[in-house]
Amino acid sequence: MVETPTADSPAEPDISHVPPYAGKTWLGHPPQLARLFSIEMWERFGFYGMRALLVLYLTKHFLLADHEANGVVGGFLSLVYLTPVVGGWLADRYLGSKRSVKFGALVMALGYFLLCFGGQQGQPYATVDGNRYNVTQAAPATPLAVNDAPQTIVMNNQVLTIHGLPDGSVQLLGTGGQIARTVAAKAFSSGADRSPFYTTMLLVALSLIVIGNGFFKPNISTVVGSLYGPGDRRRDAGFTIFYAGINLGSILGQAACPWLVNHFGWWAGFLIVSFVLLIAYLLLQFDGGRLTGYGEPPTQEGPDRAPLIYVLSFVSVIVFWLVFQNVMTTPEATPGGGIIAYIIATPFLGKALLAIFLAAVIGIPIWSWRVGDKVEREMMLAAIILVVFNVTFWALFEQAASSLTLFADRNTTLELFGFHMSAAATQQFNPLVVVTFAPVMSWLWLALAKRGLEPSIQVKFAIALMLVGLGFLTLTLSGSTANEVFRVSLWWLVLTYFLHSIAELCISPVGLSMITKLSIARIVGMMMGVWFLSISVGEYLAGAAAQSASVQTVGGQVTNPELSLHTYLATFQTGGMLTIGAGVLLLLISPLLKKLMHGVD
């Protein structure tokens, strides 16, 4: 409706600096939060959708051995948490948060798009006593389907079926299942021929995703924070709403991407991920002025450094490609070689992360001892101790992206309530539990706080460690319930994810808050970087732990499901016991930490 100007309504339009939407709110918060919620949701849709597929893409399409695939996944996830340290610094100094998020979204969209081009599936082969034989196997009904078709080789003009034994040796079966030959474990190996071009494209794609994530991940949260002025009590609630977008995107991505892969092919699962990242970019690029003034570049003298930063970011793809190449091709440590052999066999990324982390956890307390007073020194020491325990948590929790997904594919029934699901889709159990039980945990902490019984930060950390360890020990009990093909009910994995998700709710929300409370004010930013570095180290160790659960495969299929079941469960038991032990240790030193923290809860 057009209003007629009156004496009380001047004909001239209002051109004041206050935008017409300034007085509006969204769920009681600045209206811009709705747009940022959507941007984060679509980005997390992409990341977690791709994460659900990655280890299966590597083992089923590229036919990487478990050791190689788990190494790549661990390296990728560790870099995902390492590059935001640099991306946040570049945004603060040169780009501004909003421009960094835009650039990161575009770079990730390009990386996801390149994943669509995987070429032909690798061609498996087996080596027997030094002689190589091509392996033939019928294709599965869908890319993510479990493939139980016989695998055969032609030896001496005879078609022989490969049948693995629990001790690692292999039987070659002739017509009628007669044993033609038994090959010792040391005399049998497997591999696959794959296109060097598409393998290079795969690693370039992962490199681009890592780089884009470094610009996106730390800075979208910074823009959210800038919506609230100093003292605005809506800030924490606003971030709670914002983080709900993470879990919503995760659930949608981990449901949609496996479905698309099974119905259309690998390319479809990655193409949708690239598409939603473009949506995230467009929501920010064409914001109708709603985000003007938020996350803008800092005032700086001289020419704009952004073009140079963009160019160097793409040049750095070479560095990340070399890191991934090293992670994928580093040989396993020699059995019985001890810690020295393990360190020598550790890829460059592992050595670098370990060196940087040790320098941080040793150097920062020494520095704080020199410049801080007694209270500051002790609080910093407590923060560093909790950071070290944080590494342990993520090393076990992030098995979801590797060994737990492979276990689901190879040794679970993959059925719930009569519905069949892919191994990739099992990763959505975690965000579903988080979304369902986050309000319950929040209510529980508040109820305990009213009675003066809320656990302290360090006790919550200890609970998280023991719960994640208990999740794995619970899973080890499933072995006695395996069916005739050595698959256990998927409900065991659901229970494990439930325990892990409750553990996540005990540690993840309080970690960053703990850093801000315990750190010396002038190095809070550095300590935030150390916190993310601890997660990065944990992610890398998660890949290394998954490598210890590696089993022999031919063409992505385990040679013996009984052997794989026992290997996974033994690894889970060891990890679970060690993590519970770490949690008990943290409980034992909790009184000491309480004293060092000087009343910080």
TrEMBL record:
Membrane association type: Multi-pass membrane protein
CDD domains: MFS_DtpA_like
Primary location group: membrane
Superkingdom of source: Bacteria
Transmembrane segments: 71-91, 103-120, 197-216, 237-261, 267-286, 307-327, 339-367, 379-397, 429-449, 461-478, 490-512, 524-545, 565-589
Localization: Cell membrane; Membrane
Keyword Transmembrane helix: yes
Pfam family, one: PTR2
Record keywords, A-Z: Cell membrane, Membrane, Peptide transport, Protein transport, Transmembrane, Transmembrane helix, Transport
Entry-linked PANTHER family: PROTON-DEPENDENT OLIGOPEPTIDE FAMILY TRANSPORT PROTEIN, RESISTANCE PROTEIN MDTM, PUTATIVE-RELATED-RELATED
Family statement drawn from the similarity comment of this UniProt entry: Belongs to the major facilitator superfamily. Proton-dependent oligopeptide transporter (POT/PTR) (TC 2.A.17) family.
Protein name per the record: Peptide MFS transporter
Organism of origin: Sphingomonas oligophenolica
